[in-house]
Amino acid sequence: MKRFYKEVSVSAVESGWQVMLDTRAMKTVGGLAQILPTKVLAEALAAEWSAQGEKIDPASMPLRDMADYAIDMVSPDTDALIEKAVAYGDTDTLLYRADPDEPLFARQQEVWEPVVGALEARLGVQFVRISGIIHRPQHDETLVKLRDELTGQSPFALAAIEAMTHLAASLITGLSASEPKADALALWNAANLEEDWQIEQWGRDEEAEERREKRTGDFLRARQFWELTHSQTGN
User: Fold this and answer.
1) 49 pLDDT tier (thresholds 50, 70, 90)
2) Cβ neighbours for 224, distance < 8 A, ≥ 6 positions apart
3) Measured distance CA(181)–CA(93) in Å, rounded
4) Which three-class secondary structure state does DSSP give residue 12?
5) Segment 66-120, tens digit of pLDDT
């Protein structure tokens, strides 16, 4: 599609902020008003529109896509997304360890335990660690606490947490990365510990590295989206 606008701006509305293309207020892919919770998020989406050339490239506007997903898909049924995320908590990558006599186990303990322990302390829960691949469910009270932590989050925050959780196959990672001072890259690298371990053992693969680079970008972008939805600057 050819670029059909000249000016991009953001405008305050009753319940948030909107991106304006000339005098047109933006809507979501689903046709809803694209009302954004913070000015900085609106400005970030406006920057994506401003960066377009003569032709619009939808793939170059990932923040817009996340905003539309939050409004069109998450907002109408937050409970469904919360249950999907809690299911990750019941099979969390960071809780499944190698057997204690394997070298990988020591690395998992070193890298994963601080992350798991920090979330346990914050939520007041005790996760079940598992050696091997046979599923062992988490305690009901733990799943309740995870559900409570997600309940009440905005659709925009939930969209970001779901994206990070899905990419890392770890709700512990998703929740840990949705903290104001979180080191998102360190958390992402921790979640990919087993992949890095395999690289150490067997060497690198160019295609796998390209996939990892893309997923890393997606994870950090989801974290950026979370930050933009929580910024107090210019609200």
Assistant:
1) very high
2) 44, 63
3) 23
4) strand
5) 999 999 999 999 999 999 999 999 999 999 999 999 999 999 999 999 999 999 9
The one-character DSSP state at 74 is I
DSSP class of residue 224 equals: H
In the structure encoding, which two tokens stand for residue 165, read together? 């959780």
Question: What are the CA-CA distances from residue 74 to residues 11, 127, 145, 186, 218 (Å)?
Answer: 24, 27, 21, 27, 19
- Residues 224, 200: Cα–Cα separation, whole Å: 30
Alpha helices in 72-154 (DSSP H): 78-90, 103-123, 140-150
- At 232 the pLDDT is 58
Please tell me the number of Cα atoms within 13 Å of 45 on its side-chain side: 29
Residue 126, both tokens: 């005790």
| pLDDT the model gives residue 233 | 47
Spell out the SS3 assignment of 173-194.
Answer: HHHHHCCCCCCHHHHHHHHCHH
Contacts of 80 (CB under 8 A, 6+ apart): none
pLDDT category of residue 235 using cuts at 50, 70 and 90:
low
The whole-angstrom separation of Cα 62 and Cα 21 is 18
pTM of the full predicted structure?
0.94
